Input
Amino acid sequence: MAAPPGETTNALIGIFRLARLDPTGIEFFRNTPGAFWRSFKVALIIAPFYAGLLSMRYAMGEVSTPPLRFIAVETIAYTIAWLAFPVIVEPISRAMGRSDKYIRFIIAYNWASLLQNMLYLPLAMLSVTAVLPPDSGGGFGLIVLLVIMGFTWFIARTALEISAGRAAGLVVIDFTISLLINGYAEKML
Output
């Protein structure tokens, strides 16, 4: 399913506007099922960079499991991480009376992942290679995490047109899902 002309450009403009805390950025996302499914291509865009981080972790000896098991566990975890939040948020958005805004929210959420990973992945790679010592990156890592959570909160509040508290609840759900998936994947390794 090819994206209509300009859809990717509009999504990038929209996400950069949202990153500047401009709520009109949400208007740049199509609110259609096709655009919803196409927004998951962001996972494919990020995947090679994430794979690079994982191979760096493996090469540095952070993981001692056999390579095929490592690849399988991380691939499954990556896929689940991309699908779990949208699946869990759909009935929540329905319960909040925001079903009509759910698709646009997930589209913006997915595109936001591109920007978020532009912050996270370089930091993680520097940490793995010891260019950035783990202890010194902790403070900066926490700041990056808080910025990402704040951005997710702003997108949820703007796209779903919900209260600050409800948006914060969605951020907590998102963070909890990430912790559970990553924790379980690490346990399997």
The radius of gyration is 17 Å.
